[in-house]
Automatic annotation (TrEMBL):
Gene3D superfamilies from the UniProt entry: Phosphorylase Kinase, domain 1, Transferase(Phosphotransferase) domain 1
Name this polypeptide is given: Protein kinase domain-containing protein
A GO MF term: ATP binding
PANTHER family associated with the record: MITOGEN-ACTIVATED PROTEIN KINASE KINASE KINASE, SERINE/THREONINE-PROTEIN KINASE TNNI3K-RELATED
Domain Protein kinase: 99-376
Amino acid sequence: MGSTTNNHISLTYDEVVHNKIRSLEIIEEQIANALSIIPTYQQPINTAKAFNEEFIDLCRELRCNLDFAVSNIKTFKSACSNEGSELKSAKVDQDDLLKTKWKRLGEGGSNVFEAKLGGNTVAIKVLEDFKQSKALFTEGKLLRDFRHDNIVAFRGMDILETDIPELNLQASSPFIVMEFISNNLYKYVESQRTPENSGLPIGLVWNLGRQVANGLFYLHSLKPGVSHRDLNPDKLLLDIRSMRVKLSHPIIALNQRMDSFYNARWTAPEIWEYVDEADELNEEVLDDQYHSDEVFFLRADIYSYGQVIAYLLTGESPWQGHHTASVENLRNFIEKENKVNVPEKFGGPLKQIIEACREENPEKRPTMQELIYNYFSTDSNPYQSDAESAEFFCCGFLNDTKMFVADSLVDESSEGYFKTKETPQGYPADCFVCEVEVGNKQYNGCPREENWPYEQKYKEYYAHFRQAALDKKIADNPTIALKHLVTPREDEEERQEILLKFRQSTYCHHRAMREVWMKVLDDSKRAEVVPCKSVINKTFSTSFGLHVAVLTAESPPKFIFARRANREGIATPGKFTCGAVESSSTKDYKKIDESGKKAFVDLVQTAVRGLEEKLRIELKGDDVQAISLSTVYLEYDTHEWGLCGFINLSDHRIDPSRRLTFDQLGSRFSAGPKDKFEYEELKAVDFTLPTMVEFVRENYHNFASSAKLVVVKVLQSFFGVSAVEKAFQSYKDQ
């Protein structure tokens, strides 16, 4: 294929590699010709002996060097052939890639676009200048070899086969395909900013800082070490579902000038001297001479890391307010404004890290290895409570809960409906039609483990509850127990699914096992029996509940609290809960397998049934789409698994005739729901952040454990995680 205009060369992989090899062959032929005309002397000629010996030595040395050059060329030819194979293996399906329109994400020497590949959103980095293709393919080869949770993932690389006129991209432009992450630390900090607090919670800063350090340590520890050279909050990508930080690919800085304004905010002082020298020499920054001095840039990365941590803590960036200043003007402020001041209230190891990393003398800064070993070598967070480090749910002062969150779509990234105007989403509805193993009697009686030490106590408790059932105080109905749970993988972006599988048990068995867990096992025994909370313990997992909070259809909406009746048979008598709580049972079976050994339960139906039986909220048809179930949890103090969420009765998907106010709901409750005997009181609280925080703060000691989790998750869904945490903390400090 021939050449085109604008310095773009339309070449296939095979042609690129062929031309490289052909160029080497031409050089090889020229060297061979040179070798052929150099005489081979075995013995000196008698005349002009001294001169002759010197000439012969020179010829021998020349032949030796040329032979060595030929050997190197052969090695390089082999490497070129291998490169061709590697490039082919990284090719992408361009037909698939071009099915959807690309969206431009950035400008500069390297354009970045959002696109679709294999149904997943990806980021594409395109070089318009073919002269830079060598750097890009070098970058691609590096990226392909990177394997780290905190480095953006490589998806492939190729050369455009067709023009994309609307984006001014021409065929033959090389590009790299990478994992797409739309958020970054800069956007996240700005989104969480409030009048009271500009930065992030200090415990979260520690977790984010640890991840950035891990990613940098990985790069710096490669042989040879790789520096990032462009470390700033904008280039630290944030997967908001998992709150995982990923460093954008480090070599992108090779295609940019270091004197770009945004980079200058975060860079080390010595980089300025480097820019000056490059400008004086009229050379581009980061030329080959400086590329070889990798230690220089590794130390500069450390300084930038300190700048980033200071920003996460305070929300203040270097040269705050100088948004339109030129680089030359910025340099006038370098001595007094290039460092964010960290207030005294931010003490402890984070402040030590910031001070050490921002040492003016690069040689006095710690290496990433030293930072990891001295501060991040364990998983402990010095700014979190014992409850948090034990993986239990915690929000503000609610640190006495024993709720383990196995998975939730409401996480640190959630900004809330009132800010985003996006309806909070739950897991897909098809996740809630789940397989149930039925007919296995070992799930209905004393565990058949050999020498199970709690058999006698179990039998005593079971006899008690069976008698209560015979006396009609409780109903010994079949129950559904969780036996298997798979949560979304870290790298899943398109669809957040969970997989739940169950087995059929009985209510009396559940209550007996619950008593053994609560009254017989102490904390050490519980930890021994359940060493990993996310793994289902099939002995003590004997039920599964749906906890659905309710918001009424009025302004402001009311959040419904229900107080359980203080009577025998009620699991948590006298305690407040949120909305409706219902255990999944055979009533919710959607179908039963012909063999009779397998059924399928509909958990959404459990939620619908609970709302109707507990509160007389009737949902029909498309109404059920308004139920949002978003969190799987283990109530550790009772060892009960559950799923929680909410229903907003003002949701447009609910028929207008069934959008109830609290007064309407109260009259229905008074008329007598099927399970009215379980609740003795309904309490409505205005669904505003101040009133909700005040009510929870004053009454949380009378909450069932799951109610604490549910109320906070609903608040986070509507008001945002950061705002809720700050509201609870502010109330606590009053």
